[in-house]
Amino acid sequence: MNTFRTLSICILAFFTTSIVSAQYAEFQNNLEFKIQLLADGNYGVFVKPDHTVSPSGKTQTGSGQVTLVVPSNFTYTNFTNVSGTWIENARVDSPVEATDKAYVSFGFVVDNPRIKLYANEETLLFTFATEGAFNGQIALFDNENDPFMTPNSYGSNPGNDLGVIDLGAKGGMVYYNYARNYSTEAAELRESLTMASK
To answer: Model-level pTM?
Structure first.
């Protein structure tokens, strides 16, 4: 019991220190998301630092969410975590703001497997497949322009987010934040694969 209590105190102290330290870190909005149809037929969601930063090997991810905008009857299968642990934590089908759409949000749970960020490189966060024949559009939520952005008719909080603290950044601690999507929709590769299969 004493060992468990000591371990719990150490873990609590670590996260408290990280949170307090983050308050003194420089905040930068420079992480970008992308969704893409992969060569194996699955879809992948990626993160990439923009050209302004070169993360060190001492990053820790503390929070995140990815929201997909899909057809209202959309279903998926074979969800696989690649970097970080993500789970579906919210779904809204056919809201009045976009009756033909569904908003599926995946929340970040823990940084395991660790999300490793590299300058000018993409990091795959998770993959999934569509069920059955699918020809619709799968897109990333646009935090600035989507009709279902907060406040909305469901009182829900869709959107994309990722918070990463870099403890080894040159010049002092840096807190990287989600900024934008660098590729919002997976249709281009899907169309090229469809043409190649004919």
So the answer is: 0.82
How far is it, in rounded angstroms, from Cα 160 to Cα 178? 7
Spatial distance between the Cα atoms of 127 and 106, rounded to a whole number of angstroms: 12
Q: Is 13 a residue whose pLDDT tops 70?
A: no
CA separation for the pair 54, 65 (Å, rounded):
22
The mean per-residue pLDDT over the stretch 183-198 comes to 50
Residue 17 covered by a domain: no
Q: State the first-to-last Cα distance of the chain, in angstroms, to the nearest integer.
A: 64
CATH code of residue 163: 2.60.40
| Residue 35 to residue 101: CA distance in whole angstroms | 17
- Taking CA 74 as the corner, what is the angle to CA 81 and CA 133, rounded to the nearest 5 degrees? 95
